[in-house]
Amino acid sequence: MVLEATVLIIDNSEWARNGDYTPSRYQAQIDSVHYLFSIKTNDNPENTVGVIANAGDSPEVLVSLTNDLGVLLKGLHGLGVRGDSHFDTSIQIAQLVLKHRANKYQRQRIVIFAASPIDTDEKTLVKLGKKLKKNGVSIDVVNFGEHTANEQKLTAFVDAANNNDTSNMVTIPPGPHVLSEQIRASPIVGERFGGAEAGSGGDNDFGFGVDPDMDPELAMALRMSMQEEEERQRRETATQQGNSGGQQEQQEGGAGGNAEDDMEMDLDEDEQIRRAIQMSLMESGQDGEEANDSAAASGSNAKDDDLVASLIGSLPGVDPNDPALKDA
Fold it and tell me: Given this model, what pLDDT does residue 315 score?
């Protein structure tokens, strides 16, 4: 965005009454002033625009540097066609207006409409152009109406004021076209405020069939809606990406958990088999011990019976074969 202070100079001389431009030279300039004010203030909210009428007894400052459309409309109200044009004097007054701008960081620019013959000689105009260049003031000239008679002088004037292609001149012959549209397609607008759009012959690529210069409020509302919709789509995309990432992590975690569960199941099966073998071995050992204990007990009982029989046989008067003793 260009930070700029601009003074628009209207040629409201008697020559502006001619109707060879739609609807007349004067009204075509007024429409172009509205267009230039709109495009410059929309490009940067800190841009300011002033307006000077260069005809009559002397040039008159109609609107001091402002970005308020209401101030512009009030300044243009009541302006009429009168007298002769003061081309060079109006430029000098515009230079003084720019010199006293509030924001010194703003670049300085003058846009002047030349709709009548210029009485100033070429040498004076070249000197004026060099002064503008020295003071850092860019100049744009809209040469229409008496364009053939003025072209040589204005070309020399713009060449003298030009510094790194910051000054321009556009020559617009009569025709059914609209002056503001021709300005829009020229380097005066195109090089600084959307060259591709302006260079395409005035085609508006904003969309929705809306011209942002003719209805800036509607264009701003549509632009804000587009930005909100883009922000909503970005949020939805981020949310979807986050959900997909979480699902992938869950799937990976679930796969890892299943593998661990399978490993635990495998370990449990091995452990169960090992324990079953140990239990089987333990049961076999217990059965053998019980059999040995039983055999030992049987042998012990037999030995006890023999000992009792020998003791009974050694007693006097006792018959070891007595049935009563055996039953006992």
Answer: 58
